[in-house]
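G., before I forget:
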Amino acid sequence: MPHDTRSLNSDRSDIDSLDDIWLFGYGSLIYKVDFPYLEVQPVYLNGWQRRFWQGSHDHRGTPDAPGRVVTLVEAHGERCFGLAYRVEADVFDHLDHREKNGYRRLVVALQFGPHDIRQGLVYIGLKNSPAFLGEASEEAIAAQILRSVGPSGSNRDYLEKLVQALAEYKVHDPHVDAVYKKLLALEASTPAAN
Ligand code: BEZ
């Protein structure tokens, strides 16, 4: 299983099966919206939770020193907040390239309201991809984020932008909040360089 999932995602039958194409963003897609969309709505994805378990070898880290970014893992009884963008099919030419590091596009059921469930698409890190780093303590994740940097900038910036974006929607994600708190504590305990 290679890191690069573009060939897997080149099968567009999932997109073609949808009348309206809703893309669920739960990570950088919440705050880095570099694609056109027709409308956006806050939604939940039931049965999944956000975790910093995906390696970033191409954006917030390097092949030798990967950063950590979010993916979704199945979690009975949990739900993950995100934004649903209604898009045209051609945005996936760009997004499949941007999110090529081990992420597979899947069709899921998005909750728009108490009785309003619609199908949407989401990128999820494949657990059998080398890009999937898996579980670690929140302190170890924070330390890795603090030292990682890649072509898209620092991993710290990724985490902080996600924290700020979730705060705008008054969403508390215990894992994201805990990793950020650990990162701030690590920074506070590290003597500043001269
Ligand atoms: C997102 O921001 O929703 C996202 C997360 C992982 C891969 C692609 C997109």
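The first helix runs from residue 6 to 9. The helical segments are 6-9, 13-16, 28-31, 91-98, 138-147, 155-168, 174-189.

More on Monday.
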